[in-house]
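Q&A log
Question type: sequence-to-structure
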Amino acid sequence: MRFLGIGHGNDLGDLYLRLAGRGHDVRVFVEDESSRDIMAGMMEFVPTWRDQLAWIREAGTDGILIFEGSSWGPAQDELRAQGYQVVGGSEVGDRLENDRAFGQEMMRRMGLKTAPTHEFTSFESAIEFVRKNSRRYVLKYSGHGFASTRNYVGELADGTDLLAVLRSHASRWSYDQRPHFILMDHVSGVEVGVGAFFNGRAFLHPPNFDWEHKRFFDGDLGELTGEMGTLATYRGAERFFEATLGKMASVLRESGYCGYINLNTIVNEEGIWPLEFTCRFGYPGFAILDALHAERWDEILSKLVSGKDTSLRTHDGFAICVVLTVPTFPYRHGYELSKGAPILFRGELSAAELDQLHYAEVAMEEGQLVTSGSIGYIMVATGLGSTVEQARESAYALCEKVVIPNLRYRRDIGEKFLLRDHAEMIRLGWMA
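Response status: OK
Response body:
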């Protein structure tokens, strides 16, 4: 088969490596110049992606385009209309993720209960609003170009900390476009995601649960990084899915959406509160899903574009993934000090252990694996087990075999689930 990967920063590089390892022809376009050294010496790159469309067309049903990120929706819709097989998302999917207010409105239209959400295009009006309506809020920016570190989860009941953050952001705003963000009423409870693949007409089953760990340090301290690790399972999520993400099927079908989609939520005594969509392959979401799949990516991608089979073969139990980073992650400034560092392993890794490692910002230089890219997100280690404890043991045993100067990672992925979240999900009736 022929696969053409198209993205801003080669975030699915490990997936491309696995496709190539299965004997397929894989070419990759990376838009961001600072990311073009990712996987250097490890795969075939192309300077433009549209020039490769004829190569994909020649393969017929064996040619698939894979789009990363949530900013390529219009191009994907256009290509599908021209008869190309495309996995990624759609223009509507882009809006669901990037336009926070639109995403919340679509949830309400589909019958989901949402927390009060307030949309702003100026800091001044937001500051005045919080002054008049004192409470905890969550600040989230719209648009795919804003790092998650700019979002803020309010801590103080009267909102004074959020007021200080809004003033700070206003004084330092350096973007050409006007600010576009929402303030969402803070909701307490268990944070849990539900995700599934959509083939353009229907969801593949089963769906999955995930519990993300977004902050940099153990105990949920520090920056919102996007994600430092995740716990996931494909078992027991069906009823939760039907009450939430499953209601979006008609919207996705009408837009021609084809790819993975995730809905993050808060669950408490009052029910399920949907927070936001991820309308793309998540990072490291695709890595932890890989650990749970009993099918390879070429089989799953072919199944998505054919639209014929809505079953997905998956493993029982739980998977854990741990993100391995080096300074200056999660910030770009100063990362040149860590680029080019050697990546080594304690002893020789088995084939199974190598399969559990998912490379991110790495490159091959004269036979030596080294750090590359622009931020220090080096790789993801995964572990699978019939219990969360077994999955944790497997993942962290693998982490300890990775040797990189100044390597950092969280040591508590999955602990919160064991200590509280699992029992709470059972008490609230969403898990057995």
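Response note: The chain has three domains: 2-90, 116-185, 190-427.
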